[in-house]
Design brief:
This protein is mainly alpha-helical and 89 residues long. The chain is 44% helix and 9% strand. The chain has a single domain (2-66), classed as Rossmann fold (3-Layer(aba) Sandwich), CATH 3.40.50. It has a two-stranded parallel ribbon. It is elongated and about 50 Å long.
Length: 89
């Protein structure tokens, strides 16, 4: 679950690992700052990713909308595998 991302990242960094983390890295500014400080202290590489946005299907959908191929978009509904996510789960 994404509420564990920050803690897991910091533990890996403290143990000498470079880290690739999917969004969201954290839900709180203080935790993000702590990750930044941990990266600097342990001289590790930290990268944030957004795999979904680089996926071919998502890129194609963006191109279709940006080029007006389906007219003006007034509403978007998204379905993701795994059920409902977010604070209202």
């Amino acid at each position: 679950p994404d509420h564990w991302h920050g803690l897991i990242c910091m533990e890996a960094l403290r143990n000498g690992k470079d880290v690739y983390c999917e969004k969201p890295v954290t839900h709180f500014h203080a935790e993000g700052k702590a990750i930044h400080e941990t990266v600097a202290k342990h001289k590790r590489i930290f990268q944030v990713g957004s795999q979904q946005r680089s996926d071919w299907n998502f890129r194609q959908a963006v191109e279709i909308v940006r080029n007006g191929l389906i007219g003006k978009v007034t509403k978007v509904e998204v379905g993701l595998p795994g059920g409902k996510t977010g604070p209202d789960r």
